[in-house]
Amino acid sequence: MSERDDRPWNAWLEPAGSDELGAVEPDARIGPRIRTVAELTRLVRERLRAAPDLRDVWVEGEIGQVSVSAAGHCYFTLKDERAQLRCVVFREERQRIAFEPQTGLRVVVHGRIDVFEQQGHYQLYVDALQPAGFGDLALRLEAMKARLAAEGLFDAARKRPLPPWPRVIGLATSETGAVLHDILHVLRRRWPLVRVVFSPCLVQGDTAPATILGALHRLARWTDADTGRGVDLVILARGGGSLEDLWPFNDERVVRAVAAFPRPVVVGVGHETDVTLVEFAADVRAATPSVAAELTVPSRDEQRAGLRSLRGQLDTAIGRAVGTQRGVLDGERRALEGLRPSAVLVQERERVGLLLDRAARAVAGRLAADRALLARRGDRLPLLVEGRLVRARTDLHAATGSLAALSPYATLERGYAIVRRPDGAIARDAADHAPGDPLEVRLAQGGLDVRVERVRDSAS
Amino acid sequence: MPFDAALAELQSVVGRLEAGGLPLEASIVLYERGVALHDHCARLLGDAELRVQRLLEQAGGALRTIDLAPDDPTEG
Predict the structure, then answer these.
(1) Residue A121 pLDDT more than 80?
(2) Is A30 touching B (CB cutoff 8 A)?
């Protein structure tokens, strides 16, 4: 309006020149024709309605004042730096349009220009309204994705493996809604040994990115007061939604924060088609929040099965170890018995008995010391103490048994040796051997591989 | 002792026992250790309850965690 202030108030009524209105009715040139307001307004209205480029209009601007009439129609102004446009959304359209006009929002609206005669306004009759940029959201997304990808933010080489045994999981999500519940449910069922540090944030709306950044930042700098350890990994999750709902997960600041997070980040967004940029930046992308939780922890059931199997392996291995040693010793004992007069063996057995007594006393002494030690720790580890004592008693019996099997060693301790031929047969007669024959000598400690230097008969 | 550390040691114990070649007494000591580790791991699996804490930032920026009740994690 301001550019017209320098003209007379009725300048537009002048019929002369190229004035558009004058051109409509050539008769007006004959003399001033006085019209009624209604006539003129009707004229303007018809001209506007006739203009094809005003019937199907897309316009972008910022929403100014908004009001809703008692009938449910919504009126607002759309403005930019230089002009304003009156807009109306009728009740029926409002019910159809998902988006509600709000002051300050930048929007793209569609409709037709018409004149509201009673008030002399021309205005836009809106039939579609979206946040600005929504129409080309996908395009902007692609552009940003290309830019961040060019920076290497999404490179596979950047992706860090998840720690196999996380002790503390950081969780950033909304504290309302099902996602938090779902994730905790999975962790509780699957791996309750883990500790969850939950850092709440908003996952939808204009303020969501800032709260996500805050939640991630707090998780990054948190450490346990006792251990000094921080989180081992972070789950960032939200439920499904429209592209618009998911927009905070396309926010460049959030994308960068996820990529730069000091620990691996798993992102789980409950949707099926669109992939957000945050998911590209994540170390691991999960199809849903629950799957994100599944991926971060081992399975308790699998670990139980693994433990059972290890227990079996332990028993098998110890059985084999005892059996093998017993077999070796039994063989040597038989060899000794074959060589020695039984009277000597009786003496040896007596000696072994003394040795066993001594060994049993020694083991008992060690157990007593252990018991005292355990008793001192008992206030902290009552269960372990009881378990260990029971096992220790069992082991005492086992140790005693194995000492009995050691009796041939006692013979070797006295300085005897067992000499075998390479085929394992005991060497009994020098005459069976020739210089250069290889022999095997078993001593109390270890053995010798030797060769015959000279053969002497029994007289020499 | 955390589960993963106990499990790793248990696996090492089983490996050494299975490789054989150890004196009987060493084998028995290893076996005892293995059983203790196994029982420890099994107890951790059986007794564990998920611990959930909420991270709070106090005025001045200090961080604090508060335990959340297992039933309703949004209250606490």
Answers:
(1) yes
(2) no
Lowest mean pLDDT among A48-57, A142-151, B46-55: A142-151
**Looking at CA atoms only, how far is residue A272 from chain B in angstroms?**
27
Name the residue in chain B with its Cα closest to that of A395: B28
- Alpha carbons B2 and B48: distance in angstroms, whole number: 12
SS3 annotation, B17-63:
HHHCCCCHHHHHHHHHHHHHHHHHHHHHHHHCCCEEEEEEECCCCCE
A311 touches chain B (CB under 8 A): yes
CB–CB contact B35 A324 (8 Å): no
Which segments of A378-448 does DSSP mark as H helices, in order? 382-405, 407-413
Helix (H, G, I), strand (E, B) or coil at A435: coil
What pLDDT is attached to residue A224?
Answer: 93
- Give chain A's radius of gyration (CA, Å): 46
pLDDT value at A80 more than 80? yes
Whether the CB-CB separation of B12 and A313 falls below 8 Å is answered with no
Give the span between the Cα atoms of A267 and A370, in whole angstroms.
50
Q: What is the pLDDT of residues B27-39, one digit of tens each?
A: 888 998 999 999 9
Residue closest to A179 by CA, chosen among A85, A338, A286: A286
The model's pTM is: 0.54
Closest CA of chain A from B26, distance in Å? 10
C-alpha dihedral (A150, A153, A155, A156), degrees to nearest 10: -170
Q: State how beta strands A106-116 and A57-68 pair.
A: antiparallel
What is the average per-residue pLDDT within A368-383?
52
Q: What is the DSSP string of A367-385?
A: HHHHHHHHHHHTTT-HHHH
DSSP letter for each residue of A146-207 = HHHHHTTTT-GGGPPPPPSS-SEEEEEE-SSSHHHHHHHHHHHHH-TTSEEEEEE---SSTT
* Residue A354, token pair as written in the block: 């003394």
- Better-predicted residue by pLDDT, A347 or A303: A303
Q: Which of B17, B20, B44 sits opposite A193 (nearest CB)?
A: B44
In this predicted model, which residue has the larger pLDDT, A198 or B73? A198
